[in-house]
Design a protein that fits this description.
By secondary structure, the chain is α/β, with parallel strands linked by helices. The protein has ten helices and 14 strands. About 40% of the residues lie in helices and about 30% in strands. A hairpin with a 6-residue loop joins β3 and β4. α2 crosses α8 and α6 crosses α7.
Length: about 350
């Protein structure tokens, strides 16, 4: 069947109603989020002078904050959309890991499939910010892949949870921090197939080629470029476009996902399936911080996919959601009512 390739796909009242109806019914969904858990820490203040010791800014710190991050931030986005969430991942046997699990439980997340490993550190990302601007990030982590024994423990915990709870989707959030070892990926995809559960994936470089036959694969441009070894020069729009065409073609023919959702920052999003190939342009935004935008996109896409929303509508709404969170400083989850308002403001063109 030929692929219908459309640039600037029209938006109909039916599309609008379909998206809004899906978002209004999210409370009937339960999603398993699997991936790299981390702490998003913030040190905020004001910069008004340069250090006499070195040409670096001095932050007069006034506030600290710590939030569940990584795959936990994806879970927060799902919860903000009204979805029940179970989360699976690994934390270290340290105070950060204990506090992270406690914080997730306080937010009504089911953490029964979270495993603590005494020989790992919990990933902590500390962002130093002034006036809403991101100045520096400090990472503390152990990111080696889980070994065979630890991977087996993860799979047993996940299988047990899947035996207790029916899930509408499994969302895999890969940050290359090690919990998603090849053994864990293969095992979870097998379990999902056994249970007939759709799988969406937000990939990273290390195991980019391990996610085969999933329902939705969501790389960004850098991940597509690095994961497939694509080449183009910065500023070469034609070369970039040719590389994207090659990359999407390879993903569809070799990885066999049902859909690829490619996020392209200021260039919007593109979704490709066996029967359509649609590009939605980015909407004008005042960009403050792109941190966490990908988390929001995959969360919204998963919610809509789990309810059978078509690929183009799914991509358009996920595109809106990713842009909305970029207007907020720091890593923040999407607001369902705000997203629905954004959908209602889209001009009807069909």
């Amino acid at each position: 069947m030929p692929v219908d390739k459309t640039i600037g796909h029209p938006w109909s009242q039916e599309d609008c109603d379909r998206a809004l109806n899906a978002l209004e019914q999210t409370d009937r969904l339960h999603v398993l989020v699997l991936g790299d858990l981390m702490v998003d820490a913030y040190l905020m203040g004001k910069v008004d002078r340069i250090s006499p010791e070195a040409p670096v800014p001095i932050l007069s710190a006034s506030q600290r904050d710590r939030r569940p991050g990584g795959a936990a931030n994806v879970a927060l986005n799902l919860q903000a959309l009204g979805v029940a969430v179970s989360i699976s991942g690994a934390v270290g046997g340290d105070a950060d890991g204990h506090d992270l699990v406690a914080a997730m439980e306080a937010l009504d997340m089911d953490t029964s499939a979270v495993v603590s490993f005494s020989d790992r550190r919990t990933t902590v990302k500390t962002r130093i910010m002034s006036g809403g601007q991101h100045l520096l990030r400090v990472d503390e982590e152990d990111d080696a892949d889980l070994g065979a024994e630890a991977s087996q423990v993860m799979l047993e915990r996940i299988a047990a949870r899947m035996g207790q709870q029916a899930f509408n989707a499994i969302l895999i959030e890969d940050y290359d921090k090690g919990v998603l070892s090849p053994m864990v990926i293969e095992g979870v995809l097998h379990l999902a197939a056994q249970h007939g559960i759709p799988v969406t994936v937000d990939p990273k470089f290390r195991h980019f080629d391990a996610y085969r036959g999933v329902d939705l694969f969501k790389p960004n441009l850098k991940e597509l470029r690095d994961g497939l070894g694509l080449l183009w020069e910065d500023g070469d729009g034609q070369g970039r476009q040719q590389a994207i065409e090659e990359g999407l073609g390879r993903l569809m023919s070799e990885w066999h996902p049902k859909a690829v959702l490619l996020t392209m920052s200021e260039h919007g999003v593109r979704i490709k399936t066996a029967i359509e190939d649609v590009h939605h342009a980015a909407h004008p935004r005042e960009i403050l911080d792109v941190s966490g935008a990908g988390d929001t996109v995959i969360a919204v896409a998963t919610v809509l996919l789990a309810q059978g929303v078509d690929a183009s509508t799914l991509a358009q709404v996920a595109n809106l959601a990713g842009g909305w969170v970029c207007e907020k400083p720091g890593v923040v989850p999407i607001d369902r009512q705000a997203l629905m308002a954004e959908i209602r403001r889209l001009p009807i063109t069909a």
